[in-house]
Amino acid sequence: MELHIWPADFGLPTIDVASLQFLACSKMCASPVRVVHSSRPWRSPNGEFPMVSQTDGDAKPVTDFEKFVDILKKCGQDVVIDADLTSIERAQLDAFSSYLHHNLYPAVLHTFWVDELNYNTVTQYWYASQLHFPYNSYYLEKRKKKALRILAGKTGTEVIRDAFMALNTLSTKLGDNKFFCGNKPTSLDALVFGYLAPLNRVPMPSDRLQVQLSAYPNLCRFVESVSSIYCPVTSDELKQTESIRQVILSRVSKAKIDQEAIRVATATADAIPDEPPIRDAILFGIGAVALSLMFAIHTGLIQITVEEEIAE
């Protein structure tokens, strides 16, 4: 069985949310899955990664997380994912997974694919560098449109607000524990890791959600723990991704500087009152003089005497 995912970067085996979820889940149950880093998503049935290709018979490739979890449960390895959960705990896990999909996932999409500053600075550049032209333009447009469809009807403020609440809920549920459901990792841990790890590691110029995540030390520790235990990155992978990482860091730094310069310029412009145009000032002055003269004549301050000429 092979798991095809996007390439590694920023100290993660991949920065793609779904790819991280598949990978983490397979590693948590020590499944003998061969991981293939690829930049050819067109080989997947839905044109996306991750994709699990099975070698048994005519089995179709799997791209759905729940179906992948079912496959892992039947693989026969010593560690079976979610095996120790009671029926009540399974129901709670399903409910929590649905909650995160509706409240946290949209914000992750917004951060990477909808926020124009982040998209133009990081997302577009990273994926374009992984894919050849002109397919990279087609793929990026397709992914962006998909994200916009998912977020249709929601404002950016609403999406971020829901995500803030989801992070708080996650932090409360995790507490001081290592995992979310007892002493062993479950498929929920894999899902949460996939959502949080890119936010924790990939720099963004517009980083409200990332700053909020950093306010929860237990969630940050969870990401680091799962990353080091189940999803470590080799030294070769770190070297291979160093150049693009430095380019993106430079782009993010420049974007933040430009953003601050725009903010300062806007604030300065708002603080300086607008000067009236010269034409308006002249007309106002003439009108004021005319009104003053009319008032003076009316009140008798200025008298106009008309003398008739006497004919001889």
From TrEMBL:
Presence of keyword tRNA-binding:
no
Location, primary (coarse class): mitochondrion
Do the record's keywords include Flavoprotein? Answer: no
Where would I find the GST C-terminal domain in this sequence?
Answer: 86-247
Q: Where in the cell is it found?
A: Mitochondrion outer membrane
What SUPFAM superfamilies has UniProt attached to this entry? GST C-terminal domain-like
What domain of life does the UniProt record list for this protein's source?
A: Eukaryota
Q: Name one GO cellular component term.
A: SAM complex
Question: One matching Pfam family, short form?
Answer: GST_C_6
An annotated GO BP: mitochondrion organization
InterPro entries, per this entry? Glutathione-S-Trfase_C-like, Glutathione-S-Trfase_C_sf, Metaxin_GST, Mito_Protein_Transport_Metaxin, Sam37/metaxin_N
**Keywords for this entry?**
Membrane, Mitochondrion, Mitochondrion outer membrane, Protein transport, Transport
The UniProt family comment states: Belongs to the metaxin family.
- Record's protein name: CBN-MTX-1 protein
Classification lineage: Eukaryota, Metazoa, Ecdysozoa, Nematoda, Chromadorea
